[in-house]
Design brief:
This protein has helices at about 5-15, 20-30, 35-45, 80-95, 110-120, 125-135, and strands at about 45-50, 70-75. The chain is mainly alpha-helical. The chain has one domain (about 5-135). Helix 1 packs across helix 2, helix 3 crosses helix 4 and helix 4 (about 80-95) packs across helix 5. It is globular and about 35 Å long. It starts with a helix and ends with a helix. The structure holds zinc ion. Zinc ion binds next to helix 4 and helix 5.
């Protein structure tokens, strides 16, 4: 398991969450639930792009990265409870473990896999999560 200091250093290095203490805490909670191996994989070359709901856009500069990097975009829904933030962060980091983007032939497999990672780290898509998401998200 990664140390608290390592996790704190990673979270502090992410400039898009400087103003969002609640999100920093949720990331710390999720990352500290991972095995050392999962933590390394999940955070390697990872940049966060995080915005609260009423912000319309954001542009950030990142240092050049050798090889592959990944960006996790997170929109903070107004009034999103901590358990939702933690689930969404764990689910998105689960996508990071897949090491590639979705393609049509994957159908729902990568979503199920991201949920399996989230569950492994202790953040399952349970009834409470489903209920909240169904109440606030509308299909486009
Ligand atoms: Zn997903």
């Amino acid at each position: 398991m990664a140390t608290k200091a390592e996790i704190s250093k990673f979270v502090k290095s992410q400039k898009s969450i400087w103003l969002y203490r609640k999100v920093q805490k949720a990331f710390e909670d999720v990352l500290s639930s991972m095995s050392d191996e999962d933590y390394r994989e999940a955070t390697e070359g990872l940049y966060l792009m995080v915005l609260h709901e009423s912000a319309l856009g954001q542009l950030m500069h990142f240092p050049r990265s050798k090889g592959k990097f990944k960006i996790l975009q997170l929109s903070i829904a107004t009034k999103a409870p901590d358990y939702i933030l933690r689930y969404v962060i764990a689910h998105e980091l689960g996508h990071g473990m897949q090491k590639r983007n979705w393609k049509k032939s994957d159908k729902g497999r990568l979503e199920a896999s991201a949920d399996a990672w989230a569950k492994k780290w202790g953040f399952p898509r349970d009834e409470k999560v489903e209920k909240w998401m169904n109440a606030v998200t509308k299909p486009l």
